[in-house]
Amino acid sequence: MTADWTRGIYAITDATLLPDDERLFAACERALSAGPALLQYRDKSADAVKRWRQAAVLAGYCHDAGVPLIINDDIALAMRLKVRFGTTIGVHLGQQDGALDTAREALGPSAIIGATCHARLDLAERATADGASYLAFGRFFASHTKPEAPPAPLTLLGDAARFGLPRVAIGGLDVHTMRLAREAGAELLATVHAVFGADDPAVAVRGLQASLGDAARK
Length: 218
Ligand SMILES: Cc1ncc(COP(=O)(O)OP(=O)(O)O)c(N)n1
Ligand SMILES: Cc1nc(C(=O)O)sc1CCOP(=O)(O)O
Ligand SMILES: [Mg+2]
Fold this sequence. Notes:
Elements: E1 8-12, H1 21-33, E2 38-41, H2 48-65, E3 69-72, H3 75-85, E4 89-93, H4 100-107, E5 113-116, H5 121-129, E6 134-138, H6 155-159, E7 167-170, H7 177-183, E8 188-191, H8 193-196, H9 201-212
Parallel strand pairs: 1-2, 1-8, 2-3, 3-4, 4-5, 5-6, 6-7, 7-8
Helix pairs in contact: 1-2, 1-9, 3-4
The chain binds the ligand Cc1ncc(COP(=O)(O)OP(=O)(O)O)c(N)n1, the ligand Cc1nc(C(=O)O)sc1CCOP(=O)(O)O and magnesium ion.
Family: Belongs to the thiamine-phosphate synthase family.
Binding site for Mg(2+): 73, 97
GO biological process, one term: thiamine biosynthetic process
């Protein structure tokens, strides 16, 4: 059974931190064992064979753990996984990654479809109208993973409550800064480094959950 995905830790993979199948799969298994709300497969390479192979394994892990798998950027890959495995597959789309309504049509009404809104409420308003399932804002703090991402103020998260969708905070979140983003209104706290830069992603997810005061999910 899939647990409530709308609140908690949103773990995002990274091909630099997890450069091969063995490390990616081991780290994701550990992270999933601690009950994140969502797992995103994010691989910016053009290696479609690797992306299919890795995403297919993660789809199985996520299915077993009851955690939705979100595919970054790639509606076609999410669609292929859904057809092949029939599991809960979603997609995260940035402003250059394809149309939300195309993704919704391809993946169906219950798919989780996320939208990057940077620091812009106008993008959030459009994404809401186009059928997004959640709205992602950031980056809020200095990011190891994407230092060039444009900055966003924490006050944006309160302003975004009006859209009535789960708000994701991203960028430089760790055991300290995550609390600030939650206090500012984010239901979901997305991180690469605080989970997959840690020695043990399971311990990291549990530590982040504890820092938020969220009950352990597993
Ligand atoms: C949860 C979440 N929020 C934001 C992003 C960034 O998406 P995007 O702007 O498309 O940048 P890339 O991740 O594709 O480099 C995200 N992936 N996930
Ligand atoms: C993928 C991504 N998108 C961002 C945005 O602001 O849109 S920040 C970011 C990287 C998040 O990694 P870390 O938790 O290591 O900072
Ligand atoms: Mg993208």
